[in-house]
Fold this protein.
Amino acid sequence: MPDDPRSGPSKPTRRAFLRTTGGTAAAVIAGCAPAHRDSAAGKTAVPAEIAEGPNIEGAVPITLRINGKDRQLRVDPRTTLLDCIRETVALTGTKKGCDHGQCGACTVHVNGRRVNSCLSLALMHDGEEITTIEGLGTPDALHPMQAAFVAFDGYQCGYCTSGQIMSGVALLKEPCGPEDAAVKELMSGNICRCGAYPNIVAAIQQVRKNA
Ligand code: FES
């Protein structure tokens, strides 16, 4: 069978599938237009020669606005948002725990909403606003949620902490009942292997009270 995805809908080859997974299929799953060099979706076309990232065959130029700064990147279409943030942009505050959408360590904000970045492809977010833990506050001017985690000892080993804080900040804008049980429910996607849950809930409740 010819190795051409246009040759027919049945029995796509493995090679054809891999070639299109990062582009068309992923974009359809995300409900957005395909992102590639000649995209007519109105998104920024980044000249490949000025984009950051490995110059490998098939890499796609995209622009992510990360923590208020436009980053012109070149990524393999299969690169997750998490790996793009950590490996290409070198912002390592976002952690990789399970890499399967189960622990929440990789939580970032995309256009203000929390997302497990290990479950999302970077090119699906071309032109979008990404916020990581580095974009929340600074050591000298902590975000109120960061300050509350310190005050309430809401961390132990610290590995899950950035994801917990990003989820906690996003939760402030989500429908959530006033009781601790409601906070626990909305934070249930963020696992803390040290078991600092009571302190995490206390920190979030404190910020909600002062908001
Ligand atoms: S690393 Fe993404 S949910 Fe665990």
